Amino acid sequence: MKPFTTLTGTTVALDRANIDTDQIIPKQFLKRIERTGFGEFLFWDWMRHDDGTVNEEFELNKPYAKGASILLARRNFGSGSSREHAPWALEDFGFRVVVAPSYADIFYNNCFKNGMLPIHLSEEQVEELFQREAKHRPYQLTADLNTCTLSDGHGFSAKFEVEPFRRHCLLNGLDDIGLTLEHESKITAYETAHGIGV
Amino acid sequence: MSAAAKPRTLFEKIWDAHVVHAQEGRQTILYIDLQLVHEVTSAQAFEGLRLAGRKVRRPERTIATADHNVPTTDRSLPIADPISKQQIDTLRNNCQEFGITHYDMGDVRQGIVHVIGPELGYTQPGMTIVCGDSHTSTHGAFGALAFGIGTSEVEHVLATQTLLQYKPKTLELRTDGKLGRGVTAKDLVLYLIGQITTDGGTGYCLEFTGEALKGLTMENRMTICNMSIEAGARAGMIAPDQTTFDYLKGRPFAPAGAAWDKAVAYWKTLPTDPGAKYDKSLVFQAADIAPQVTWGTNPGQVAAITAKIPRPGDFSDPTDQKTTAQSLEYMGLAGGEPITDLKLDRVFIGSCTNARIEDLRAAAEVAKGKKVSGHVQAMVVPGSGQVKVQAESEGLDKIFKEAGFDWREAGCSMCLAMNPDKLAPGERCASTSNRNFEGRQGKGGRTHLVSPAMAAAAAVAGHFVDVRDWE
Ligand code: SF4
Question: What range(s) does the Aconitase A/isopropylmalate dehydratase small subunit swivel domain occupy (chain A) (predicted)?
Fold first, then answer.
């Protein structure tokens, strides 16, 4: 897994709550059997009109959003389906950081498995970021996982919280399976005690 | 009193029994009893194993079936979509290579993964169950801890038979009193989601309790637990009781003989102890619940059939106002119209929420001797091959066909429209599935979630009707 330490990048704001994983990556793109290449399908139905032409109104298509790596959204981001294709698509498109007041559990968890940082801030802080983004396009933010701060270099700076072990794994790009297998003797002991596989 | 005798909730008992290694400040390594696998979220996990040169630790603890992509029309024809076919073939090959039991198309036991697990007796009380699918919460109806996971975690379970988990908090949703006539488990769970909202359960494992749950069949309980995820909770559970045991007895993969008695004795110890504390408890009244219809683009945007569609101004929170305006626009609604005025183009009876035998019986009872309205196209998709066989042996297929419904093969079908069953832009559909997200049933399609009886009544009437007034 790619480690995440610190990132300065352009922020694009999606002023919507409950953005579900069906929107992030619609089902017709879940038929692929690879992990890569999902970026071109990100927000498919919002990116283009019914006739296939580019929807210039959609935030990700605006000139100021070019090269964006930080996504700002409202509450309950990533709800719905467990599809890991959602973080795969966001990451493949270029996003490494999402900032929102809250996330759906499975999506939140999936981000960490893919070297992405989902940042929780309060509704008020997120509102402040929406206002700043609207005023200073393209809007740059810096997410620093070493110090757990999100800042814009123009007076906005907020601390965020990440579970210490998740932070450790993300900073070092550690592989979960490898970590668990360090405790393989405990798994075997559990199975023996429960008569599994005997 | 010893520490071990401290009263515990159902969740805590199952959690405690599966801790392989509790790590200070880290996720717990939790043993997983059963993993269910389907074609959409597994290919990359098997590929990961191959790349790392890893094996499946306990192949006998994973079962697989193809459900999302399978056509629900004539199965003797080849699958038209080559990419769907590739995904289904990949699952078959992976299962062969790694030694995993696979219920393939053509096997009567094939079906939606959350229908076949219980039906075959794999799903049992006290188990930890995972699947790369958010509706794994369904299996919590048996008093199991069951939740959806991502593909990286599918790979983790295949390789280690464990999962890394932070312990969720517990939320009790208690419903006092009995559900009224014509009010079903689907209405109950939609109502609860409307009350606590789509992220009210985030970070929690739900336990549904109260008198309203007592008399419910396993099918009904599965409908409720299925939709826990729509309240943001990864898992929802209901304590096992005699109904649970009666359902499981004699199923192919349920314990038998002496092992059965031993299992039941253990299962009886699982319900939450008197005096055990949940992190949070909320109480609702069954008498307040009418048949429900969703009007928006998330399952929390729901109202009683007797209500009018809300307007953005009915909400005080600015985000809610904005969300409501966006949802109404997508749904082609102005706000303020009576729900019973909404005219329908399509009706879908199916999905892991409501495609079990009882759901089909409930819909057939309403449709019997009636005709689907001239402007409605309606279909019934059984949840599994076995549900289909059972329904046909009861003559339900005839009732549906005579009424003008399409009778299909088992699969997810128009729940997510990954196969050819989908809505055209602007079409309005009454659906017994679990998600009314934008485009879920086809780009531009407008989904209203309801119970099977409400869906059947709407198909006949051509618009929503209150099933309580149905004769
Ligand atoms: S029926 Fe629908 S919700 Fe259930 S597993 Fe299939 S696609 Fe998912």
Answer: 1-123
**What per-residue confidence (pLDDT) applies to B1?**
45
Tens of pLDDT, residues A135-153: 999 999 999 999 999 999 9
Q: Based on the structure, what is the number of domains in chain A?
A: 1
Where in the sequence is the domain holding B65, given as residue range(s)? 10-168+242-268
Residue B123 CA to residue B144 CA, distance in Å, equals 8
What's the CA gap between B210 and A151, in Å, rounded? 48
Which residue, among B437, B447, B449, would best test binding to A if mutated, counting the most A CBs under 10 Å from its CB? B437
Q: Is B352 in the pocket of ligand 1 (CB under 6 A)?
A: yes
Report the Cα–Cα distance between both ends of chain B, in Å, rounded.
58
Residue B430 to residue B405: CA distance in whole angstroms: 13
B81 CA from centroid of ligand 1 (Å): 19
The number of distinct structural domains making up chain B is 3
Q: Is residue A97 part of a domain?
A: yes
Same domain for B27 and B163?
Answer: yes
Amino acid letter, B279: D
Question: Which string of DSSP letters, residue by residue, matches B63-88?
Answer: EEE--SS--SS-TTSPPS-HHHHHHH
B444 and B308 in a common domain: yes
Q: Is residue B2 part of a domain?
A: no
Residues B337-361 have a mean pLDDT of 97
Other CB atoms within 10 Å distance of the CB of residue B215: 10
Residue B5 lies in a domain: no
Note the pTM of the prediction, 2 decimals.
Answer: 0.94
On whether any CB of chain B is under 8 Å from the CB of A172, the answer is no
Coil/strand/helix, residue B440: coil
Q: Which residue range(s) make up the domain with A42? A: 6-193
- CATH code assigned at A176: 3.20.19.10
Q: Verify whether ligand 1 is closer than 6 Å to residue B95 (CB atom).
A: no
